[in-house]
Specification:
mainly alpha, single chain, two-stranded antiparallel sheet, 56% helix, 2 strands
Length: 126
């Protein structure tokens, strides 16, 4: 158990030799799946438009007294659009909040900065 903990704490090497044929196969598969995902997202958007169009401005779709789906204004608040449309109210209802200075952290404590950065898979063009 202790050796497995040590292995997890030990940093992985920056580079690792891999099979280029396997990588090419996986990247091609990923590209095909991504294409299908884009197509499916467009189809979902079209269905969502049809559903919300049925409401004609109402918030709930009902049948026989049972709510089938809703379309309410309870999502993420559009702060930037609000600021552009209502600059006076934006200032009135704004407050200063503590914010992590990520640039200073990266400069002075790169070890901590790297530890909390997300890993992102970025395939290279071939």
């Amino acid at each position: 158990m202790l050796s497995s903990m040590k292995a997890r704490l030990r940093p992985a090497p920056r580079q690792r030799e891999v099979d280029p044929a396997k990588v090419a196969e996986l990247l091609a598969r990923r590209k095909r799946i991504q294409g299908r995902a884009d197509e499916l997202a467009a189809q979902i958007a079209a269905v969502d438009a049809d559903l919300t169009g049925m409401l004609r401005g109402s918030e709930e779709a009902v049948a026989g007294g049972k709510v089938l789906f809703t379309h309410r204004r309870d999502g993420t608040f559009a702060s930037r659009q609000f600021a552009d449309a209502h600059p006076v109210e934006f200032v009135e209802f704004s407050r200063m909040a503590p914010k992590l200075d990520v640039v200073a952290l990266a400069t002075r404590r790169p070890d901590l900065y790297q530890r909390y950065r997300a890993r992102v898979l970025r395939p290279r063009s071939q």
